[in-house]
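#data-curation
PF: Archiving a pair of folding outputs for the training set. Convention for this channel: one message per protein, sequence first, structure tokens after, nothing in between. First:
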Amino acid sequence: METLREKIASAVSGYAVKGLNGFSLLTTDSEQQTWVVASIAEVKGRRIAGISLLVRLVDDKIVIEHDINDKPLVDALMQ
């Protein structure tokens, strides 16, 4: 059976993609308890960077701290 960590890692990996004007990177801590998707893009000649997703595993609970994606992580996890 897939562990909670594996489910989170699998779901979050789909958010790190190449976009029209930039790309996203997925990073996690050494214990795989925090995942961050950082996005970098160029808009009107200026580079911008930000965090589009931050999720943590706390006491066997998924805590979505920040999610600005069109398809929220909670929906992806529910499927």
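PF: Second:
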Amino acid sequence: MRLVLCGTPEFAAPTLRALVGRGHEMALVVTQPDRPAGRKMEMQAPAVKRAAMELGLRVVQPEKIKNNAELRAELEAIRPDAIVVVAYGRIIPEWMLELPGLGNVNLHGSLLPKYRGAAPIQWAVANGERETGVTTMRLDAGLDTGDVLLERRVEIGPETMAAELYPVLAAMGAELMVETMEGLERGAIVARKQDEAEATLAPILTREDGRMELERRTAREAYNRWRGFAPWPGAWAEFRGKRFLVHRMHVAGDVAERLGAEGLRPGELAVVDGELAVGAAVGALALDEVQMEGKARMAGAAFARDFQLKRGESLA
């Protein structure tokens, strides 16, 4: 098949390699412009661009695509059978949706219709889901509302981090896209409508999503959100008027028993059997590695010692 791929981050690169490896003609790769990144804010090419250049493919990096006459003319000249879209980061305009005969086929990192939006992997973990997966779908004008083509599922373990799922789902998604393209070519896939009653959203993450808010979350809920949101926005609160980051934690189910009947109030800090613990709305967390704003990371117990933690002090 003659294809065009639109994608940007590392999540999309395995799909590009897999399609080329199966012998499909990748006539063009569309990705976002190089951006400054890292501490030195040096310009870096997107992962998809690097993969495309290794494969000897033509790459374009338009800043905008909706009214881009040059891009439109090039795609119309290519006349692709399908446009493959994987984490491109731009809304696909109507003219692109209508261009290829087999449509724009998207790889999405959830089991649609659950977790439509920009951060499906993170929100699935943050909400304590036990299963997720990847879905191929035909894009339409809505937000991940198009007809589902194929899907594959994977278990989320109780300690699994969202960052650990990314390469798993990227590899699984690459295989699924190859299967989808070959099924479409044969006319062997029956698309199905999404059940709108089951739809949930996975909006782009903000810094506020990392706020622990232990007065209204159980220890397990706070732990799940950290699993979903590490490394950014992570898990954070305020202590003594400064930002307090938690880099590693675990649910400490028996803190109340070790402290006595009173346990810990939500947000209250205490050293319990050598661990820095904090109370939640239900249960408690052990904070294994923490960091005060402007300071180095340190073990929770070392933080309590170095900052002379007093009984009754709390995270806000």
